[in-house]
Structures are given as C-alpha cells and as structure tokens.
C-alpha cells in the first residue's frame, strides 16, 4: 500500500514521557524542529505515575562515588560502570536543569531539598515533588514548556506503527496513524525512540496501558540490536486490588513501613540483612515465597510507625487511593504483592543513546545502556530520564550527519488478514496471563520451553512480522514479538542474576555478560562495554 510523506522535521521523538520531553526541549533550544509523537494524551506514560522521585547524591554525607557503588551493588555485576559513573556524575547538573524548567522539589524546614530513603540506597538521596506525586508535577511542567516552544509540535493520539528506511536502509522516518485515523509517513534526519517500557505484557503491572514495548519492537524490526530483555523488574509493594494495581512507593518502607505476612509475622529480615530495604529483586522474591508459604495472595504493609496526619501529608496519593478503595490502612495495613514494574533491557545503545543503526537513538526506559545492570536501584530511572537526554542531544549535534532524501511516498506490504476485536482481546489477555506464569519472578526451563511453544503458535496465527494498520492489532503483535524475545533470552541465560531468577540454575554466572537479540541472528553474549565518556551539556 502507498503512504504519502506529510511533513519533515529535524528530529522525531516517539514518546512524551520525561525522557522524550527533555530531549525535545533540549533540541528545540538548539533550533532543531522536533515532532513529538504520543499515542494517547501527551501526559500519559509511566512518567506521570512516578511516586518516589529522583535519586541524586545531595546530602552532606553523600557523594557521586557512594551513589555509584549502590547502583553497582544493586546491579548484581551487570552494570556498565562507565555509563553509571557518567550518569551519576551528571545527576546534580541534570537536577539543576530540571529546576531551571520550573520544577520545585519538596523541601525540608531548612529550605533544602527533602531527601528520602529507598531500597538499597546507603543514604537518603531521593528528591520528590508533591509528596508521592513526583511524576505528575514534573510531567506537567515539562508539557507546559513543550507546548509553548515554537520548534516543537506535539501529535497526541498518534500511534507510531513502524520505522521507515530508504533504499540504502538508512532510517529516515516513521509510519503513523494520527488522531483522525489517517495513515501517512513523517520524515526526519534523526529519530529518537522514547517509548517507555512494556509492563503491559504482564497481567499485573504498575505500568499504564501505553507501555506495550512498541518502540523496542519497531527498532528490532528495523535492525537495531536489543539487550538483556530477560531482565524485568518487579516492584515488591503494589496494592493488591483485583486487577487494578496501584504502586505503594518504596519511600513508605524507606521511612519505616514494615512487611508482615497474613499470619502477622514480619519476615523481610529473614531474607536479607537490609530487611524491607533489601534490593527489589530480593524483596519481591521474599514476598513471593511468603505468599506460597501462607497460601495467600498478598502480604501487608504495616504503616503504624507513621501518624495518620504525617502519612496523609507525605504520601497524599497513596493515602487517598487507599481510602477510595476502602483499605483500612491504619487498622489492617495495606495489602500488597509484587507486580511487573520496569523494563531493564531494551534497545542496545551507548551512553549517548546511539543505537547500532545510524540516525536511530533511544532514551529512557526503552533504552539499554547498561546503567541498571541486572537490577535497577530505586529512583535511578528518573535520574536516567533526566540526564541521558543531555548526552543524546550533545552527541547528536556534535556528530551531526545529514540524512538527505527526496522521498515523497513509501510502498509498504501489510498483513492482509482481518482480525476480530474480541479475538484480539482474548489473545492479549491470555498472553498476559501466560507471560505472568512463565516470565515472572521465578523461572524454570520446562515452563519457559512450553511458553516458547505457545508463543511460536501465536507467531503462526498473528504473523507479528507483518505490519497491521489496526493499532490494537499492531500493539498485540509487538507484545507477542517482545514476549518471544524475552522468553528466548530467559531460556538462554542459564544462571540466576539480579531480577532473572532461574529456579533450576541458582548459580551465578562465571562472568556477567549482556545478552543481545538481533533480527536474523542467533542470540549472543557480549562482555560489558567500557565506553569513552561523552560530554553532556546540561546548561
Ligand atoms: P514513559 O513515561 O513511559 O513514556 C512513554 C511514551 O511513549 C508515552 O508518551 C507513550 O504514549 C509513548 N508511546 C509508546 N508507544 C508509542 C507508539 N507506538 N506511538 C507513539 N507513542 C508511543 N522511576 C523512578 O526513578 N522513580 C520513581 O519514583 C518511579 N516511580 C514509578 C511509579 C510507577 C507507577 C511506574 C509505572 C514507574 C515508576 N518509575 C519510577 C519508573 C519511571 O517512571 C519510568 O521508567 C520512566 O518514567 C519512563 O519514562 P520514559 O520517558 O522512558 O517513558
Ligand atoms: C517507588 O516510588 O517505589 C518507585 C520508585 C522506582 O521505581 O524507582
């Protein structure tokens, strides 16, 4: 089918989360024309729901070196140390840049930014806004800014379907369905994928509906390498509310909340010396084992160390949501269980977000630069979203490569099959359920192998390599492709490392290596890279 080219920009950014918006604003500041594509409202994405905040080593007893060590420790040996060092070293300037946009972080009585503690941080270093509504306030300020910026155009309700290449296979554009359901192509010199994670491939997730891994799969289909897809982080404390999960920020535990099983036994210290503040992978598994032991669906977060007034002031969203859902939080405790939360793997890239295809960049949760190793340290994602766009923009401008073409239309082969809405819905809900059993916190070869067969059969019925113009169908195809790649990687990694826990291979690896997935290539191992630092201009 033929698709006309409707417009051309210097840069197209797919995604309007914190990473995409900062990227767009920094590019626009440097006179680049930017089009931000976003499949729902501009505010929608994981960024909006972030609670705890951003990790920055600001306190007197803290330093970039301490933050780096905590990051590496949580990352279980898979962290790319140079990447982590650079991101942490730029955390303060990144924060200053965010403050210069107009974001006011919560402060303590002395007018200093209030810092809270979260799991596996050796000191309090998490800055927050609006108590537990960090993402909401930061997103609002960035969206207001971007809407006022003449060099940025934001296309809401616009679904990016596929990346487009010219005859020389250079990436030059994006095929979209816009808000009026028209399909056409947009061209750009460079394309930035900022499409977030993929929690929606699981039944129980903290992620909003838009997180279906589209940008990751689109990049894979266009020849980009993906990395460490098996590394999926589960958040230990998500409000257990039959099908409507709501995160209970780790800061609640950071400030003294305790976990007990339904028999009333406090258990966290039996699993790790840091108890409730153990790294997320350890605590999520501890909860899983307690649920099995007590044959229950949730444990309880005891918050009786807080006065009700203080809790309401410090965690207004958690407090209100619990009230709305009739949770008697001070009487019974908050019922919680682990849920899929963060996609550690993603599009393989360097510190500047450059993928292995020219003119293709990635930033934020969809990117895999090795910062998070095999287990992300709490509040390090927003840190990355805040800092990485500066590296990206600096590199894109420093090494600017023109990408000229005079293409006016594209001919694209489409999937000829028609899919019925109710069948799509059923396949999607089965996929989520099956992914939760096979690719969840505890994995084994036999279950993974069976799951791979199931995913293979979905491949035959859904042809995920063929593009559909029906966005719901394309989302499902993306989820199936990603689930398949995750399952392959989880099978191949025959050891336990960080969030990847193989009950049949509890051993650690001899050497921690990344696992790379590339179209038409066998999965392969790659030693950690030690990159030459690039400069980030955060001014
Ligand atoms: P997102 O904010 O997820 O944005 C993705 C964007 O891509 C959206 O605009 C979406 O519409 C768009 N998109 C996706 N596919 C397409 C497509 N096909 N076409 C067009 N647009 C598309 N991290 C922390 O560090 N601290 C925290 O306190 C914290 N709390 C969290 C709480 C919750 C409930 C969740 C879910 C996550 C939390 N995280 C936290 C993780 C962090 O919020 C995310 O990793 C981060 O916000 C991701 O930002 P992003 O810019 O990469 O993507
Ligand atoms: C939280 O507030 O617990 C989420 C923090 C994060 O995901 O980093």
3D architecture notes:
There is one protein chain. The protein is of the alpha+beta class and 539 residues long. It has three domains: 2-231 and 344-409, FAD/NAD(P)-binding domain (3-Layer(bba) Sandwich); 239-339, Flavocytochrome C3, Chain A, domain 1 (Alpha-Beta Complex), CATH 3.90.700; 415-512 and 520-527, Fumarate reductase/succinate dehydrogenase flavoprotein-like, C-terminal domain (Methane Monooxygenase Hydroxylase, Chain G, domain 1), CATH 1.20.58.100. It contains 16 helices and 21 strands. It has helices spanning 18-29, 46-49, 64-74, 81-89, 91-100, 134-148, 214-221, 250-254, 268-271, 280-294, 308-314, 316-324, 380-398, 421-438, 445-462, 471-492, and strands at residues 2-14, 34-37, 54-55, 115-116, 126-127, 152-155, 159-165, 171-177, 183-193, 226-227, 232-239, 246-247, 258-260, 299-302, 334-343, 346-348, 360-362, 367-368, 409-411, 513-517, 524-527. The strands form four sheets. Strands 1, 2, 6, 7, 8, 9, 17 and 19 form an eight-stranded mixed β-sheet that branches. Strands 18-16-10-20-21 form a five-stranded mixed β-sheet, covered by helices on one side. A hairpin with a 5-residue loop joins strand 7 (159-165) and strand 8. Helix 5 (91-100) packs across helix 13 and helix 14 packs parallel to helix 16. The longest helix is centred in the last third of the chain and has 22 residues, at 471-492. It is globular and about 65 Å long. It starts with a strand and ends in a 12-residue tail after the last strand. Mean pLDDT is 96; it is low at 530-535. It binds flavin-adenine dinucleotide (FAD) and succinic acid. Residues 14-20, 37-40, 44-47, 49-53, 134-135, 159-160, 194-196, 206-207, 210-211, 214-215, 247, 342, 364-365, 379-382, 385 line the site of flavin-adenine dinucleotide.
């Amino acid at each position: 089918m033929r698709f006309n080219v409707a417009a051309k920009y210097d840069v197209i950014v797919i995604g309007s989360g914190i990473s995409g918006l900062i990227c767009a604003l920094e590019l626009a500041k440097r006179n680049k024309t930017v089009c931000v594509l976003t499949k729902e409202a501009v505010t929608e994405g994981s960024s909006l729901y972030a609670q705890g905040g951003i990790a920055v080593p600001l306190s007197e007893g803290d330093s970039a070196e301490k933050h780096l060590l905590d990051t590496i420790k949580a990352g279980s040996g898979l962290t790319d140390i140079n990447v982590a060092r650079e991101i942490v070293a730029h955390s303060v300037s990144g924060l200053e840049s965010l403050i210069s946009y107009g974001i006011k972080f919560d402060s303590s009585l002395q007018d200093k930014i209030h810092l809270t503690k979260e799991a596996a941080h050796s000191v309090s270093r998490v800055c927050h806004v609006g108590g537990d509504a960090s993402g909401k306030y930061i997103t609002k300020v960035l969206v207001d800014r971007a809407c006022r910026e003449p060099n940025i155009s934001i296309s809401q309700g616009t679904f990016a379907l596929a990346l487009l290449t010219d005859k020389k296979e250079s990436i030059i554009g994006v095929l979209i369905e816009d808000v009026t359901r028209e399909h056409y192509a947009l061209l750009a010199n460079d394309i930035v994928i900022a499409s977030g994670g993929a929690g929606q491939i699981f039944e129980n997730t903290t992620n909003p509906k838009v997180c279906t891994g589209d940008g990751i799969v689109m990049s894979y289909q266009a020849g980009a390498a993906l990395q460490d897809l098996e590394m999926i982080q589960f958040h230990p404390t998500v409000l257990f509310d039959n099908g409507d999960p709501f995160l209970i920020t780790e800061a609640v535990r950071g400030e003294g909340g305790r976990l007990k099983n339904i028999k009333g036994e406090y258990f966290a210290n039996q699993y790790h010396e840091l108890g409730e503040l153990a790294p997320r992978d350890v605590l999520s598994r501890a909860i899983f084992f307690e649920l099995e032991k007590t044959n229950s669906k949730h444990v309880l977060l005891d918050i009786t160390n807080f006065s009700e007034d203080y809790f309401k002031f410090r965690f207004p969203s958690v407090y209100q949501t619990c009230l709305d859902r009739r949770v008697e939080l001070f009487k019974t405790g908050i019922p919680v269980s682990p849920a899929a939360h963060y996609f550690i793997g993603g599009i393989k890239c360097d510190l500047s977000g450059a993928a292995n295809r020219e003119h293709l960049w990635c930033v934020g949760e969809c990117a895999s630069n090795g910062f998070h190793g095999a287990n992300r340290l709490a509040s390090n994602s927003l840190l990355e979203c805040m800092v990485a766009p500066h590296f990206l923009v600096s590199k894109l401008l420093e090494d600017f490569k023109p990408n000229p073409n005079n293409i006016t239309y594209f001919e694209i082969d489409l999937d000829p099959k028609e899919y019925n809405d109710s069948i799509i819905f059923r396949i999607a809900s089965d996929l989520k359920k099956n992914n939760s059993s096979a690719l969840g916190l505890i994995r084994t070869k036999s279950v993974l192998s069976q799951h791979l067969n199931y995913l293979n059969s979905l491949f035959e019925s859904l042809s995920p390599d063929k593009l559909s113009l029906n966005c719901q169908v394309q989302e499902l195809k993306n989820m199936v492709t990603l689930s398949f790649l995750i399952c392959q990687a989880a099978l191949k990694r025959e050891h336990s490392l960080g969030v990847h826990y193989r009950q049949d291979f509890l051993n650690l690896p001899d050497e921690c290596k990344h696992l790379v997935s590339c179209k038409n290539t066998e999965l392969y191992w790659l030693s950690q890279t030690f990159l030459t630092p690039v400069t980030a201009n955060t001014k």
